[in-house]
Amino acid sequence: MEKQKARMRFYDLKSIRWRITLLFLVIIFVQVMHMFWITKQAHVNANLAALEKVKGDLRLGEALLDALYPGPWAIINGKLYKGRQIMNNNFAIVDMVGKLTGNTCTIFQGDTRVATNVIRNGSRAVGTKVSKEVGQVVLEQGREFYGEAEVVGIKYQTAYKPIKDQAGRNIGIWYVGANNQYVDNIFRNSVKNLWSTLIINFFLTAVIFWLLTKSLVRPVRELVNYANLLAQGELDTAITVKTQDEIGYLARAFERMRIERKKAEEELRAKHQQLLDIIEFLPDATFVINQDKRVIAWNRAMEEITGVRKEDIIGKENYASVLPFYLNQQQPLLVDLIFLNHANQANGLVKITEKTLSKEVFLPPNGEGEGTYLLITAGPLYNNEGQLVGAVKSLRDITDRKLVEKQLRYLATHDSLTGLPNRLFLEEKIKQAVAQAKQGKGSALLLIDLDNFKLVNDTLGHDAGDKLLLTIAELLSSNLRSQDTLARLGGDEFVVLLDGAAAADALAVAEKIRSLLDENELCLVLYKHCFNISLSIGITMIDGAIPPHRLLALADTALYRAKETGRNRIVFLSCTEDEANSLSEANRIITLIKAALKENRFVLHYQPVVAINSRDIIHYEVLLRMQDDKGELIYPGKFIPVAERFGLMPRIDRWVVKSALEVLAARPDLSLFINLSGASLGDEKLLAYIEQTVHTNHIEPWRLGFEITETVAVKDLGRAGNWIKRLKNIGCRFSLDDFGIGFSSFSYLKILPVDYVKIDGSFIRNLHRDDTHYALVQAMQTVAHTLGKKTVAEFVENDQDLAKLKELNIDCAQGYLIGKPGPVPNGTDLATK
Description:
It comes from Desulforamulus hydrothermalis Lam5 = DSM 18033. Residues 357-410 form the PAC domain. One of its GO terms (molecular function) is kinase activity. The protein is 47% helix and 22% strand. The protein contains 24 helices and 32 strands. The strands form eight sheets. The chain has an eight-stranded mixed barrel, surrounded by four helices. Strands 5-4-10-9-8 form a five-stranded antiparallel beta sheet. A five-stranded mixed beta sheet has the order 18-19-17-22-23, with helices on both faces. Helix 2 (16-68) packs antiparallel against helix 3, helix 16 packs across helix 17 (636-645) and helix 18 packs parallel to helix 19. The longest helix is centred in the first third of the chain and has 53 residues, at 16-68. It is flat and about 140 Å long. The model is unreliable at 1-10, 325-353 and 828-833 (pLDDT under 50).
């Protein structure tokens, strides 16, 4: 026995001990690999920490320079000046920054060091040059440079910033850097702590391994032995594992199970005997068979009827040959067949064919209640010769099932919030109304949408919005007839089917509903708020010539027209009127859009955005045009609304993005901003395509930007914010278009991580003659600058407005005064910033 245990302990790879050992080895391996990864990451973090330090030290040095030597930078007589102070060989400021920060500090005139605390070969490295790589970025491109660079032969984590004169020319460089000794100190300290942690973890893991194997394996093996005894039916051996942990709890549970099972078997034997005693004295002929089809009970009545004694048939299977004999003799026989597991244990004695009949019957309630549903089944009873000897009949209470089916039908056809019929229910009703219309009974269809419902969700949350929807549903229901149907399609959209109504009746009901909400406030007592909610309503008439799905589309078109023309109004649309031409025009434009996508008939135009003070072109906005089959240009105002309404914008956006990225790849001198629709903002596939294309074609991400409208961005702030963040992380830029037309623009501006705020053109036109617009633009500029964002004024069309924008310190301008949209700009008119 001991040898067997030893073999199981040391060689049985399925044992718990070996599993724990394997887990221990895996943990150690993972910890070691993790420490190697953390060590590598620590080096990266040390470099990042040094880089962040020099960035801050660069700003500190700038503040000291401005405090000590106020005034602009300039080159005078070949020397570099800050205000009135010559900076050539002026070591005071660089030494001061070095003492405060512990870093190297240098002032360059052009690419040459003229003041530095960098010491090489016992003297200051005055006269040495900045590296070619840094000079290209800082002096030629005018951008800041952060990262590792070589300074007089030694690697540093560096921060370089261009020094500009008053004309904006790059005349020098301001530099702060931390050498690699600083990085190495951080790295060594991190590695020391990490490997100390690894050693401690290794020791603790070993201790845990030892404790687990000691306290777990032996009790589990004992418990397994007891479990095997239980499985074999041994109920007299008590389980004596006495640990106080979960294994002990399990052992005690097994012991309770052993005791209960022993008690249950004793009770079962007693009840079995009691059942046999009862069967023995039943007046009816009765016998019992077990799962093995063997007779276990044969009462006195069976002995009298069949002449077969109990002793001759108990435990045998020949009862089937006994019973048919007496049935064939047509002698009366009453037998209760008690089958423990199977319904037909009599080897073909009786059978119920596919001729079985069934019917559901409803019994009305006696007094209160919902009544009872019964499933009645009846089937013929044959003997082995196929003779009909009787019937088998059963009744089953299926009330619960019928109630569930009724509830499921209700849930499938009704809105879960309001309890109103849903689209599925409504479509069936419309089909019925169309059938009635063919017989001469017309009806009307009203599509209702709340105009400013989003205000409630944005200010009080969706619970309040749900309460308001319930209130409106009750209000609409109370103003309709019993034969009318009110349904909710989802969101804040409702439909009314006016049964048997003429056009005048439909208009009257619609106006009653519209004015009821327009002239009264809806108050949510729990939230202590009242709202002025208005409705837009589209109406169409139901006649037998228009299919049901077309009717909803007509009502939707009417509703869309009501929204377009100012909201809080009613639009009646009939296919027999000129409105049909509008639908035909939409279909024509859809056809043109699909052809343009297929045949590459879209065209990109480019309009410049310039810095107001310098008149430098910052970037170009990409504008879309579409060619018809004759080559004529169609402007976006005509085809974009149709594309948005019929779900074609994602394909158009992808075409624009793809084409613009191809231009950026071919023209490294351009910077472009692309307009995105709401359907594409948040599209993960489009986002992955942009990231991959930028990387594959080596496009500098700062040259790529996107314009999103305020109304699109706020529909899903979370999704828009995450989508923007992903592209900003690789260096792309964003502009918030149409800013100022939303009622809560400023609060959204704080949330959205955009770089530019494009002030809506309605505030810019005739700015020089409108004091109100002047004040609003000033407020937008102040808020945008406070939040670290630049401003762009669009629709700049005259010099007077441009002068006002410059007076307001607006950063950039766009409009026909600046430049009209056109083909790809030539090499003399470039966006480089």
